[in-house]
Write a structure and sequence with these properties.
This protein is mainly α. It contains two helices and no strands. Helices cover 73% and strands 0% of the residues.
């Protein structure tokens, strides 16, 4: 089983950096304007664009974490499956088991009720 690509993580980091740059540029350009009405387009475009990039970057990083966790879970489940097959093979090969079985004539004691 091949490890999943880390591309979403790198894309997410780049998007987050670009989002912070867009927010900073929008704020900086708004600060250069003398009139408040001239500041509004920079704040809106930098704010919406920056927050959009930040959100997309966070989603891409979350996707990467989920994919990596799924990979680890699948690998762990496959390892557990292999170990369980080994246990079944050990008990199925005809060697006597150390565990008591129902065929040995031992019966379980009834539970006492008080």
């Amino acid at each position: 089983m091949n490890r999943p690509s880390r591309a979403p993580l790198y894309v997410g980091i780049v998007l987050i950096v670009c989002g912070w740059i867009a927010l900073g540029l929008g704020w900086w350009q708004a600060g250069l304007q003398d009139l408040e009405t001239g500041q509004l387009p920079y704040v809106i475009s930098g704010g919406f664009g920056g927050f959009g990039l930040l959100l997309m970057g966070a989603i891409a990083i979350l996707i990467d974490f989920v994919r990596q966790a799924e990979f680890q879970l699948r690998r762990s489940a496959e390892h557990l499956h292999e170990r369980m097959e080994q246990v079944v093979d050990t008990f199925a090969d005809g060697r006597p088991s150390r565990l008591p079985s129902a065929s040995t004539g031992r019966s379980r004691r009834p539970l006492r009720r008080s």
